[in-house]
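Example (one chain per record):
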Amino acid sequence: MRILITGGAGFIGHYLATYLTTLGHDVTCLDNLSRASKDAVDILRNNGIELIVSDVTDFNSLSAAVGLVRPDVIVHAAALISVEESLEKPKEYFEVNFMGTLNVVRAMERFNVSRIIYVSSAAVYGNPVKLPINEDHPTNPRSPYGLSKLFGEGVVKLFSQLNNFEHIILRLFNVYGPRQKLTHYSGVIVKFVHNVMNDLPLTIYGDGEQTRDFIHVIDVCRAVELSLTTKHFNEIYNVGSGVPTSIKELANMVQSIKKSKAGIVYEPPRAGDILHSYADISKATKLLGFRPSINIVDGIKELLKLR
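Predicted structure:
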């Protein structure tokens, strides 16, 4: 199967590219490289995976790439992904996440691509009114990031109907794994692991009782793999572990595994953060056959050994 991955030099994208290549698929990545790591680019090249330098916000360049590859499936993973940053740069987030998605589906129409797998986010749900969160849960984003991903979902669904292509929307919860970049906007696991490896205290925003659903990047790759050929298309699926972990519990876990005594520092809650979130993955299990394979303790142990 010919597969084009937008955002293919990103954290999830480069894992997905190598994973699908080992399964025998013909994979091409597209990325503007603005936030790619050198490690990700090197891994793609070392595995013989073609990387097209292009930007989903540039329709002509994107369209030319789709015309060159002529993929059977596009996995649209290109996005800006920080809740905190989106509050500072909402225009940029809507340009990339919303308009970029519109450009992708327009290019699909031009070259008759038959299926798109849209990498969305649990941020579309906002503060949950019930737990665990299933796919029928109301969507009420609390950040420009979440809203931009929800708008992207709407574009995918609408153009799927207008142009008769198949879509699968995967709402990812908190993805983590090796080679995740450390920046000011990085997720909590990346920051915790970095601090504990450098004997620094861990910073928790709020009281630490807030919960998240952490899912390993390899399990995300498996969900995408199952989405390539599923007969249950034109559907939305949650991709998470289905297990809530509090931030305080996570901090204690990381410090315990590393035997760190650096302690924990508490800061005021951050704007846009939700209190509790974890996935009901029963639909993905039933229709896709998706089952997470890496639990959070084993995932943290892997990270601490690698860093």
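Caption: The mean pLDDT is 96.
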